[in-house]
Amino acid sequence: MSDSSTPAVDEQAPTRTRDSMPRATTWNRLGEIPHLGLIIALVLLAVVGLVTVPGTFATASNLVSVLSLAATIGVITVGATFVIIGGGIDLSVGAVMALASVWATTLATQSFGPFVMIICALLVGTGAGLVNGLLISYGRMVPFIATLAMLVAARGLAQRMSDRKTQLIQQGNQVIVDMSTTRVLGLPVLVYIFAVVVVLGWLLLNRTTFGRRTYAVGGNPEAARLAGIDVRRHTVLLYALSGLCCGIAAVLIMARTTTGSSTHGDLYELDAIAAVIIGGTLLTGGRGTIVGSILGLLIFTVITNLFILNGLNTADQLIAKGLIIVVAVLLQRRSLTSRT
């Protein structure tokens, strides 16, 4: 007596072998390459530079200039990537960097030497980030409002401390200036500092519990809390990290300009947030990469460089950046809609 629950097998039915399975096309394989679109965009911009200003764009001095400019904003972008992946936003990064540069270049601070100046810049940046994090986590303020308040307050404090004057780095503190003038293998030291920050940021985000918790908090804060993550403390740490990056950026801009000024970092928050968005990080949090953010930053930096080399208006640069941000956000929304 046969078991009636056993399904009958149709011997005539064709079996699906590996050879009969649909093969992935070359286009699909290309689509799986991480950040392919950003790489293509960067290559196209390089081609535009070679065509429009062939005698200037591809020179070693111009490439060093691009990397030096990218280094300062790039360090801030690393911190902004963590904050946005964690579901927040930081509008105060440019003002905090300016405040750190002013505080570190006062006569009182400079009298203690360059290393105290560097430590001062790092502490000021980290402290401002901690204030942001505490207001957001324990004061329950909206990140947009809390960091906007910090933007205004930090810029105002920098103006008061400097009396709206540019503060020059004194001769005895040449170590800071040497970061921009000293070259190793043709590149300034500040570019290597930027590279170290990027590598450390990548390792922290992708190879540590802190990074996994950042994705969890940004993706679903309530689920992260139920999983045992102290969401408020982690948010404070994210903003403190962003502030630390602002302090490092302050040291780099002091090296590049040999000054501390309340005007440093104007609209840097635009460039940093735009680079993060272009790099594929979701504004709602929970998804993003350091590599994508850096590619987005390089795209913006090369665009700025092309505008300068071609003698185009600064206002046109801002218009182009605004359009790029709008397109990037629309593409993000379309991508999310197609996945659901």
From TrEMBL:
Chain ranges passing through the membrane: 33-51, 63-85, 141-158, 184-205, 236-255, 290-309
Protein name in the entry: Ribose transport system permease protein
Keywords, alphabetical: Cell membrane, Membrane, Transmembrane, Transmembrane helix
MF terms in GO: transmembrane transporter activity
Pfam families named among the record's database cross-references: BPD_transp_2
Entry GO terms, CC: plasma membrane
Gene source species: Nonomuraea pusilla
Top-level taxon in the UniProt lineage: Bacteria
Annotated compartments: Cell membrane
Cited PANTHER family: ABC TRANSPORTER PERMEASE PROTEIN YPHD-RELATED-RELATED (PTHR32196), RIBOSE IMPORT PERMEASE PROTEIN RBSC (PTHR32196:SF72)
Topology in membrane: Multi-pass membrane protein
Region (Disordered): 1-23
Keyword Repeat: no
